[in-house]
Queue: 4 jobs
Job 1
Amino acid sequence: MAEIALSIRQRTEPSDRVGHAGLLLVSLLLLLFLAAPLGAVLLQSFEDRKRDFVGLENFVAYLHTPALTQSLWNSVWVAGFVTLATVPAAFLFAYALTRSCMPLKGVFRTIALTPLLAPSLLAAISFIYWFGNQGVLKSVMQAFGIDSIYGAPGIIVSEMFAVFPHALMILVTALSLADARLYEAADALGTGAARKFFTITLPGAKYGLISAALVTFTLVITDFGIPKVIGGNFDVLATDVFKLVIGQQDFQRGAVVAMFLLAPALVTFLVDRAVQKKQTSMLTARAVPYAPKPARGFDLAMTAYCVLVAALMLAVFGMALYASFVKFWPYDLSFSLRHYAFGLVDAEVNVAFFNSLKLALGTAIGGTAVVFIGAYLVEKLRGMDWLRPAVQLLALLPMAVPGLVLGLGYIFFFNAPGNPLHALYHTMTLLVLCTIVHFYTTGHLTALTALKALDAEFEAVSASLKVPFYRTFWRVTLPICTPALVDISRYFFINAMTTISAVVFLYSPDTKVASIAILNLDEAGEPGAAAAMAVLIAATSLVVCILYLGLGRLIDLRTQSWRHLK
Amino acid sequence: MALSDIDLDVRQGEFVCFLGPSGCGKTTLLRIIAGLEVQTAGSVRQAGRDISRLPPAQRDYGIVFQSYALFPNLSVFDNVAYGLVNKRVGRKAIDARVAELLTLVGLPDADAKYPSQLSGGQQQRIALARALATSPGLLLLDEPLSALDAIVRVHLRQEIRALQQRLGVTTIMVTHDQEEALSMADRIVVMNQGAIEQVGSALEIYREPASPFVADFVGKVNVLTGSAQDGRLRVGSKLLECGGCARAGTFKAYLRPEDIIARPIAAHDSNVFDSRIEKIEFLGSYCLVRVSTDGLGQPLTVYLSLNFLSEQNLEVGSELRLRILPERLRLFDG
């Protein structure tokens, strides 16, 4: 046996070649629609208008343009301010949801998550109705010394509303991971409530807090819709990118600004990955879940806080809803369907709304299929050991790429003369692909979690029984994972309905979507119709969520009955 | 785990156990035989066919994992029939074959149930039935009993052995449980750090361990350090008769507890010494007794039957004459 062999390669099972082809397709998709556009942005930022390499010249020029560096500073301090205000507020809300015996937790939670159903700029529209030039409470605001809502104040309050649910979800997860035994041990040692909070609760939620802060900062700094609507003359990085690229066709400087947007997102992503690993390892299998005990005063205080937050949320949502049904703000406040009936039709919004549904359906179906098959092949395929880690990396990358940067990359790459894929530019197909890629990572991680929960030897058993892998995928893996598929699909649908950042660069008159229509209506001085459109999107998202809930139940009955057998 | 110098033949119809501590490479070796992992060098042959580079699906074996790996969303019937459906035999033939297999593993009425409705032991029988369904030439068992509780484990190991003998299917089982290996296998392959330490029957492995590792890993053992002197072994102040003391040098002498006897001891016997009982560990019909010895310079562990202890009124502190059986002393260079 002492023969010297260069490592022996196993022959490939013919049926496995199907999987290899699938993995190649997924990697091709991610290369063309993620890596190549990003590369294009990166390249442009180091080139001059004649496409010659100029090194860091663009960056140096950028830092010497006071108007642009002002935007950089604006973006940073606004995002920092929103983070510092939102994370503690969301932490308290999450604390009430997980650690108190407050009533109606489900209701509070649902209300707090509603901002996810609409494009973020719904908040901006609503705040204009509250505090804008003709706002109801403008004088109250001015009594507090804030002259105008347009600018930093408007961006800050709107962003707080929009990012609250994102921070909340992370913090609820972090606070749910408590080990009751630590609190019991502290009680046994006669520890006071404040000391327990600072020595057990806060350290336990540390990683959640870091993660929530980073995510909040990144979401705010990369958001485009809100500053566009309520920012006035207050320039930020996201609006600069748009102005430079769409307004001035200055791709190089646009690419430089995009790099500034990419940086915080990339840092967030890397820190978050590191933090996630620590967070999961904190909770051992033997931990006992924490169950709060009733405490009258505390529960009452928590309820009061949550009522306050929920009321503010409803006030924001309610104003948009109300404004959309008002005849002519602020002069004629009588009820009218004018904005829905005519405002939207005039602006060809029926087309946009239909396009949004097409985009959302395409993304939900196509995205779920690609993401799940991709995750399956990365996790379970035999062979292609060199390619699978690369695909895994590409699948995680979108999380670190703001939508604006991705959209910019699509312009640079697909609009480039000589690109054979140029025909895709401005098409619905490209919008769908862009949106799938934009939201790829969350779906991929959900699929991976579901797949990792399966016995690792299913594929080995199938092979020993001479059953090709795709039959086991179809008969076993897919049916077991249907709940995850429903989750992924809903996530894609809702995000496709509400997204603005990437598609704002890519639509044509024929493929304009509803969320973009809001922006256009607002620019055209039709805030009522803009509000109506936003409400329509939120309503659609809500209905779709309910439909998904029903679908989930149905699928559960059809495919998961084995889970509930006694 | 890296393997090295693996040279092993498994005979037709034989039940072979790979035995060793965790991380010794036994599972890796099994997975290489199954084609689930690829060896960097060397070849694997089955029934005269070189299968070294064949993917799992082109090899001929059935496999049972510690986790059972039953498909939870399929009924027991569908699980057992999983590999049969692919063979394009008729529905009737499949029905008959599944019924036959379920009877074989003692669960004839389980066909409509789902895995979650069965106990661990029952699930493992179904996994066995599924692996045997296509009548493979080789059955691979990867720690099949480790996830089960003690009583089920003992019961099932007798059943698997009986089933294997009835069907005559060549079987390789990986286990870290020496009792399992000793009671089931025709031959045991003891592995350590990626290499085979010894291959032999249960009795050979136990009585004639080829290395200190095997002696240590399988069963209990006393280790005496001594040096050869005039064809005998000097341990402490004692000179012991022994089987292999012709060589010079220092040795570690390995000795099972049952190789030290309390009776019969005749007047002219060699290797006899006095001892005092220090500790009695009750194990049922016999006891593990630790004794301090005069002359040997170290305590020894011996098995004494419960009857003997009570007959002789022995307790901690009692004096006892013991004898080491010379032919049982196994010497290793040390």
Job 2
Amino acid sequence: MRAGLRLALAASFLAMALSAGAHAQERRAPAASGLEAKLEYCKTCHGLQGQGYLGYFPMPRLAGQQPDYIEAQLRAFIERRRSNPVMRNVAHVLSPAMISSLANHFHHLNPPPFGGAPRGAVAIGKRIYDEGLPEANVPACSACHGAEGKGQNEIPRLAGQLYPYMVGQLTGWSKERGQGTAVDTSAIMAPTAHNLTHSQVEAVAAYVSNLQ
Amino acid sequence: MKRIGLIAITAVVASAVSTAFAFADDSAAVRNCTWCHGTGAQGYTVAPRLAGQRPQYIMSQIKSFREHARDNPFSKQYMWSAVAALGPSTAYELANYFASIPPKPANDGDSSLASRGRTIFMDGIPEANIVSCYACHGPNAEGIRDIPRLGGLAYFYIKARLEQWGQGYHSTPGSPMPMAASHLGPQEVEALASYLSFVK
């Protein structure tokens, strides 16, 4: 009986010591270096579920995004191949290990699309997405981005992407992407973005922004 | 002479028409607001400036007072009852009236902290997971849609709001502000509130 009590006491002391140790470690580690704190930081702008957010600028959806694409874009911000006043500062403090953890986390999120796109041109957008515009040298978007817009490797997921973000990227492609002398994958998209008219851009953007 | 007379008449008619669509400065509804929010709605002590604020933001805040989501002590004490009898159309007209008044900066922060505040506003502090304010509030803190204009608001007000989010007030669903503010330390709050008070 007495031995049992002593054992229980010893066990509870041990548990206290362990939890105190864990607690101290938690407090010693600066929140800034943790994955959780960094995810909160990303989601403050990109939506609490990574679904994207409309601030003064549209902040793109990261949920379900291809990890290779996220990593490639963060590198492009750091190397100034993709110009963005906010994201360069964000990206340059991220370690390669942190980047792959973040990319992996966002890849597995699946909130519904942000929504809010005009509905009128969705059918035209679907046709451009599925079949392209052969007469205007616009290939089918689905050929690379997939029939459901999920993307692959460095080719981004478009499904559920914010409408104003899509419109902004496709109309300003060559001003934002592929900057400097190094050629990167953004060059593949440049002629297609160039060959789409503004109303065609809006139609495709409206279509993909609704895809689950 | 005849032409000058015509212009004068046109001007009188135009001003009469324009005031018919908006509130007169001395209407009871406007006076009920400016009693606390200051002459010309430029803000007074704890009551923030409404002049130049985004109309959608003013309406969203009226709604949040009515639904008691904006729940810091001063809001509870003053604004919950102030908006209780405010119908949606009056709220809409008041919001648009105040939005149309040119705002004046409060200029009441610590000017030695302004440049530090500007850096935090534009870039955030990525190492400390402090986000850029600019991404949502715009390059000149002018706001957009229901995201408020911050430029020129009083130092005390910005400081209080940022602290209140950290303390768990204003838990509006979907708002990133509780998260954004929780990473700010007292020095960052001082710097941001100081900088913003000078923005024109």
Job 3
Amino acid sequence: MVSKTYITTFLLLTAIFMAACSGQPTGGGNSSSGGGGGTITLQGSGASFPKPIYEKWASEYGKATPNVRVDYQSTGSGAGQNAIISRTADFGASDDPMKDEDLKKADSELMHIPTVLGAVVLTYNLPEVKAPLKLSSETISGIYLGTIKKWNDAALKKDNPELNLPDADILPVYRNDSSGTTAVFTDFLSKTNADWKAKVGANKQPSWITGVGTGAPRNDGVMGQVKQTPNSIGYVELTFAKANNLPTALIKNKSGAFVEASLESVSAAAAGSVAATPEDLRVQITDADGATAYPIASYTYILVYKDQRDAAKGKALADFLWWAIHDGEKFNKDLHYAPLPAEIVKKVEAKINSMTSGGKPLRATN
Amino acid sequence: MANTGTLGDKVFRTFLIITAAIIPIVVVGMILMMILNSLPTLNGFGFGFLTGSEWKPAERIFGALPFIYGTVVSSLIGLVIAVPISLGIAIFLVEQASKKVATPIAFMVELLAAIPSVVYGLWGIFVLAPFVRDYLGAFLAEYLGFLPFFQGRLTGIGMLTGGLILALMITPIVTAVVRDVLEAVPDTQREAALALGATKWETTRIVLGNAASGIVGAIVLGLGRALGETMAVTMVIGNSPQISASFFEPAYTIASVLAANFAEATDKLYLSALIEMGLVLFLVTFVVNAIAKLLVMRVGRTNSK
């Protein structure tokens, strides 16, 4: 009797587990709510990094424009790209710009709309060290490649002469899930360190060196391990570090200065890379020019079709994006997101104004 | 009672058949879907998928061995710790404790089963991992350090902590089932044994012998949970796809890699590899299940002799 009950329970549990695992990530997009006088729902899906600000925008925009509802699900950057390609969401969101080959999968032209700026910071657990640690591309690479094993390594001591670094093994912690945070972090290291580029490279989920460090899921997993393990180091998003008051390292930038991650230094990185920003706005702004620029920064994007199938919905989407990069930016500071530089706002305005439905511009009419 | 006639019987029977049919349909459907969706890696890697020890999605190299190893070993560690404890609790509750003591303890054991696994995971990071690092691991390294299992760097995050958290999570289930099994053994057997002059210990042995098949079932149920457990393990096991003899080193489980990567897997081959991992997990649980069935059958036979 017991074994029968067990088998049934077991099969059921397995079934539930498998079903939960094998379902395609859905954007939850139902595009039934079209035009007419009713409420228009804009379904968005993608990166988890901008979730707090997008949710804030959604609620504030909902107050200002009661007939438009914005729903945002954080499913991850990859899922966001998939959702917009397969049109299961009205807009996608991604931390890293889409690759050319992925853009080709879409049946119509996709546009990248940068919304806010973020940064990746290195947080560490060194109980005796009070002043902020200073790190450079070389030392970070060394730690994660396993060539710098101890905190009192000569390279670390050289950058931190005033600190009393312990004679202890370094435990690096990385994200084991595929993430935009990792993409930005590894992009910075690949750009600035040939050894890193050859051995690990830039990727949302690179092949970490076996035997070096441990993996942890999401920002909170990395934070948990770093907080609980003396002599460990890990990387998390700036917004997350600020919200949790984590110690963060100063990072050496292109001009040789050690810079603290802050809204100002992240904006400076964006300003420093304006000249190098291409027309489609797909750009990595790590290792940017400028004496005050923080080197591990990035844009986060909303992905939309240039030509919208549903005119009413398309108009609502264009208006929402316009509102977001103007009125929406005032909510950024509290949530620790850096606003876009003025030059980029100008370019984004042009992008939004170029949105059409059936060939007719969506925003020029008002 | 009113006569419902043959129609009532027919409706009842049809309803029962439909409910019973759901399970085979779901299981077969799921296996088929998983096989279909993992065709790219099934064809591309073949058997090498199971024996490959490199997992590098960025370079499109997929080998499942470190994950199979991590899943099986962490579950076994959990089982080795949890089974004696669960048996002890269950025997105490049924054979020794008075009702006044047994009821609250049984209630607490069931309460333990209701804690969500992510809570176990957080507790694992903040309490268990430091405990393993500072006390348990240090102790093991000092006294059993000659074994390859307890060598190397001790960070508190790794296979040992993963196994411990699994032990804690499966203890309530194994305990509850074993308790039910022991309670099902007729009291006449205990009375007969005692009447023949058997001690409490000897009586318990006879009861355990008669309940053996049920106990094996309980253990396998616990193992099933351990194999599929995701959130709690992923928080403390270190998530590094490597095969290391040391229990202090980080490892990775199938369920963890699925949970961490499914949403972000954009690449077709990667998605296929993950789905095939699900299939592997299915296979592992199936094999475990089959072994358990054989065990139950053998135990049953030796008992009836």
Job 4
Amino acid sequence: MFQYMVRRLLQAIPILIGVSIIVFLIVYAAPGDPTDRFRTPRVPPEQIEALIRAYGLDKPLPEQYLAWVTTFFQVWRPEAWGYSFQDGLPVLQKVMSRMPATFLLMGVSLIITVVLAIPIGVLAAVRQYSWTDKIITTTATIGYALPSFLLGTYVLWLGGVLLKQWTGGAIGFPLFGMESLSKRGDPLDVAWHMVLPITALVILGVAAWSRYMRSSMLDVLHQDYVRTARAKGLPRRKVLYKHALRNALIPIVTLLGLSIPTLIAGAAITESIFTWPGLGSMYIEAVRILDYPVILALVMLTGVFVIMGNLLADVMYGLVDPRIKY
Amino acid sequence: MPAPGSAVAPAGAGAPDHVLRIEDLRTWFDTLDGTVKAVDGVSFAIRRGQTLGVVGESGCGKSVTALSVMRLIERPGRIVSGRALLGDTDVLALSDKEMEATRGDRMAMIFQEPMTSLNPVFTCGDQIVEALTVHRDMSQQEAKERAIEVLAKVGIPEAKRRARQYPHELSGGMRQRVMIAMALSTEPELLIADEPTTALDVTIQAQILELMKGLREQNDMAIMLITHDLGVVAEMADEVVVMYGGKVVEQADAIALYERSHHPYTKGLLASIPRLGEKRRRLDVIRGVVPNPLNLPSGCLFKRRCPMAMPVCDSPPPVRQLEADHISRCWLTPDGGPPEVGMNASPAAAAEAAAALSVEPMTDPDAHKAVTVGASA
Amino acid sequence: MSCTVSSIRASSTRRTIIATVKPQDAIAPIVAPAAVGDTDLIDEVDLAPVRTYWQLVRRRFLRHRMAVISLVILAVLIAYAVLVPLLTGDLYKDPSLRQVWDPPSFPDAPLGYDEIGQNEFVRLAKATQTSLMVGFAAVLIIAGLGSLVGAISGYVGGATDNILMRFVDIVLTLPVLFLILMIVGFFGQGNVWVVIIAIGITGWTLAARLIRGEFLMLREMDFVAAAKALGAGHRRIIFRHMLPPATGPLIVACAIGVADAVVIEAALSFLGFGISPPEASLGNMLTNAQTYFVRAPLMVIWPGIILVLMVISASFLGDGLRDALDPRQRIDVK
């Protein structure tokens, strides 16, 4: 197993390099350059030149790339990811400060999603062709098809505006942000702010995951070994939960691993709509104002997480399915 | 001349000897395109310690019969009517819970595909232990020991080590042995084997058959052996049931079947077996294909492929008693001649004659003692 | 029939029987076959009516009620998106101070007027048209690029396949939304062509994987070997023999792909990166509507309904197409 992990990590390196090259090239090719914001009439050209030399912007492309990519992984140095164009702060620091918000939001929504989707998917599979199944499948298909920004907008509208109207101002979820100014650091307050975005995320998530669970369970239920289990005279429950479910969960576990990257970048749009101060909304803002260092850093970070997620998924698959030998 | 229905001794009389008795079983499948009558009026019986071979082409209903007896038929299939008496319990009438207790305990079933019939995420030993702990009052430890015992009994070397292995670590033949071990662990009265050797190499097949023979002698266990392979039937069966189109077309003692088969279908099957050391230019085949189950012909289901077909075959043929333990569903007389009522009989006359000639297919193995042999109209 | 085993052994009575029993005497029919017309060999299978592949596809498709309904809905939407702008020209971006927030009036303004007096109904049609155009165009790129890469990869195999798939892996490692935002943000905020290209070059990977998979499977099939044996060149084999059967899953992917592309475009416009006013897009109509939640809640609903209808219909359509083009054994319950 250890050897396999090492092998996979080594395989991942060229991909990582490829990713970094592509990203760097796109950013490099973008119009404008880092010194643009300094190019006001009051700044003399020589100073611009000096700045260019200081930033290393006059060096050839490969050199600039190497300089960047080698520094990127030295995360113990605060200047490793450069400085934001927006406010001059170290990108590393900015990213780290907003990471917990995203983790919190995505983590909680993932847990709730999985806890809800598994029983729903199993139910639909066990009662295939029945009305229960049809309702679940149709609802899931509709939910799956809803664009996230649409759902987010409506959830915000329903929970933030309409609810207030209907209850005469008594109950209403906050329209933006993660915490109220008056209650900083209060976990209950944060939780209250989380309700709406998590609702939106969970609806989308359950729609997708329950479909996967149902399809996986259906596959398993038609397998020969389930028939053998029934032929052995095992009670229905046991056949279902011990023999079938155990096998049906294997691909789900893999999916969980693959969902790790979404903990970082999964909900940029939702974060934006609910003004949740996470990495996703940070990214969108950065693109809006062309804050290149932040953009670069976030995309690379996501790439790293995706690779790690893939690896984790493979490892978990190997742990859960005895047929896999590494 | 046996009157219709009188050949059957009432249920229970003289019956302590049989393990399974199927009476007029019908299992139908409701599909979008129509109702498929996979099993349509099948009756036969198996005695203790006896091996009954059930043969027929793919799609003739033999597997469905077995699954019906085990009550493993799922939607859209349903058991429409009939009884299946295990001893004197009608398993078709049991509640789900009672059936679960019977399945795997008093009767067990093994399937065709050993490669996929075992759960890949549990060890072989665990799967046998599971069967034991569900049906017997045993501790985990006792069950584990018994599992290893039974694995050794089916001829798996290093049983203790193998018990801790997963199915994918064993070969096909070994997996089938594990399946057999699992089935036998509870010492069932009846073992249903659905094409147990079809997916295996010929040499492994021979081993498995030897194993089954040995075990059957040890345990005095009845076996219902389903197969399309007449060679396997010759090896193993005491009595043979031939099925076609969801019905029994011939049933006989094994030797009688091979030496004195009556039904043209059986004859066709036997004739199509290639024999070693024989110089033939062409093989004898049964021409045509199995009828579309959604569009079955009227009367005899075999008539379109039968070299002996006559106009009277448009009416359902009688089930004739040819000799002790030998019945055939055909219009031809016991010596192969045209029917007593004439081969161009009108449907009405044919129906009447069929009703008069028919015996209930033997469900009571001692029934033949009450019947006069070789009767004719 | 494996009777070889039985024939070899010699011990038990039963086995001897098999070995010694002579083949049954030739079964002599009682009546000459000519006299019994209706027992002629009628093969039931022959009685089934002959249907072409496409007839079968159509029949299977029509069985899916939801897919057919979806097709109808999509047709209506497309008609809406094509006809209304055709008839009204530039009306959609024609503000009119006199008609700000005017209520609906039939027949010329069934949905009323928005905050700067534009005709909501007409604007919605134009927005749908734009979104659909983007969707179709992007899918064209995806299908074209994806098929090309996938076909080459699957057909040639070997090192080429490896390299191409590594490349696909790299592209897939990057989050799609982030990439698109980057490209659009850097190179053309508000430019519809940049949006189309961005969606296209980030989305082709799935089509490539799909086609590659199909090609890998088809490559082993006998009809390809037969074509080769007849002397067909590579190009002919790929385009004439392998591509047609591979298009099945591709068509399904395209149907769903159009919907996805429309959603992405809408999301981009919603965030302000895509198409901006006065041009109309389902996305930017929603952004607008956000500001006027309380004043005119309906404005939020209409673009949303169109979008959701489009996506759900495409989804069911995709399901129906998938089943129609590649059905698996299914026992359908009454």
